[in-house]
Design goal:
Layout: H1 2-11, H2 26-31, E1 34-40, E2 50-51, H3 55-68, E3 72-78, H4 79-84, H5 89-110, E4 114-118, H6 125-135, H7 140-154, E5 159-163, H8 172-183, E6 188-192, E7 195-196, E8 204-205, E9 218-219, H9 225-230, H10 235-256, H11 263-275, H12 281-290
Parallel strand pairs: 1-3, 1-5, 3-4, 5-6
Antiparallel strand pairs: 2-9, 7-8
Helix pairs in contact: 3-10, 5-11, 6-7, 7-8, 10-11
Length: 298
């Protein structure tokens, strides 16, 4: 399975193919039953929206899931991490909702077998606190990140998809190295490319955090995303974002068989879907009737 994963990463353009090889733990691949990735909602302050760029991780995770034959995947909304970092709880709750709601709508539209869960609901607080204390790490955000990775591994999710960006000190590779140093080589990590911005002075960024709404294309709102893409910004920044949208559109076609047209039409399509209240509960009802267990059940 390690060879299959490495082959997937090398041939699919959403992965950081030239800079970051997957970290493959054969034992983890053999025992894992699911794939997951996390969505942060804050750094020093709460995120003000969810960029379209998060689809890099959504699509890459689905590719990994299919390649490894897993039945389910998970998206973990990292609300408790932000609270441990000192971000006000109400701000964290709002940012988590801004991330979770559009993701649920899109996952339902795509038909991917993904469970979306908040980190605060991952395990009893006493268990999380005990594991954090054992790490003896003063930074609560970092400790939460490592504990969550370990809890996910214990529950069968030993394959983690993350993003990597050479210009960023605290991308997913940073936390994954810390995890490996503390827990050993027990989890397989695969890395995607980072996100884009409309700021020519800071063109690359985390794919799921937004500090300045004018600089990102956001999900969950009823805006003319194409107009925003081309309004009052540098040609270089627009070209970079348009290249990313082209990659996402090709991945969508590969995974669903649907052709969304130009990068611009794909952009408006996902923005519209993420802002339209649909019956997300139908998917959950189908899973319930089928008796599909949560991979996160203790």
């Amino acid at each position: 399975m390690g060879e299959r994963l490495a082959s997937l990463v090398n041939r699919q353009e959403l992965f950081a193919r030239r800079q970051y090889e997957p970290v493959i733990a054969d034992e983890a691949l053999a025992s894992s039953t699911s794939t997951w990735f996390g969505v942060g909602v804050a750094t020093d302050s709460a995120s003000c929206g969810l960029p379209v760029d998060v689809l890099i991780l959504v699509f890459a995770q689905e590719m990994v899931r299919r390649e490894l034959g897993h039945l389910k995947s998970t998206i973990l909304i990292a609300d408790s991490n932000a609270c441990d970092a000192g971000v006000p709880r109400l701000d964290v709750h709002r940012a988590a909702s801004l991330a979770q709601a559009p993701l649920e709508l899109l996952i339902d539209r795509f038909g991917f077998p993904v469970e979306i869960r908040r980190a605060s609901q991952l395990a009893p607080a006493s268990e999380v606190e005990r594991k954090q204390q054992a790490l003896e790490i003063k930074n609560g955000y970092v400790a939460q990140q490592l504990v969550q990775t370990e809890i996910m591994r214990e529950r069968g999710a030993g394959v983690k998809v993350g993003w990597a960006l050479s210009a960023c000190t605290y991308d997913e590779t940073y936390f994954d190295r810390l995890y490996a140093n503390r827990f050993g080589h027990q989890v397989t990590f695969a890395y995607t490319i980072g996100g884009r911005t409309l700021n020519p002075h800071r063109p690359r960024a985390c794919p799921y955090l937004c500090r300045e709404p004018r600089e990102r294309l956001l999900l969950g709102g009823r805006e003319n995303a194409v107009h925003k893409l081309y309004a009052d910004t540098s040609t270089t920044a627009v070209r970079g974002y348009r290249r990313l949208l082209g990659k996402l559109a090709r991945a969508y076609r590969h995974l669903t068989g649907e052709d969304s047209g130009t990068p611009e039409s794909f952009l408006q399509f996902v923005v519209d879907v993420s802002a339209t209240p649909t019956t997300v509960g139908k998917r959950r009802a189908r899973e319930s009737r089928a008796g599909a267990p949560s991979i996160l059940s203790p």
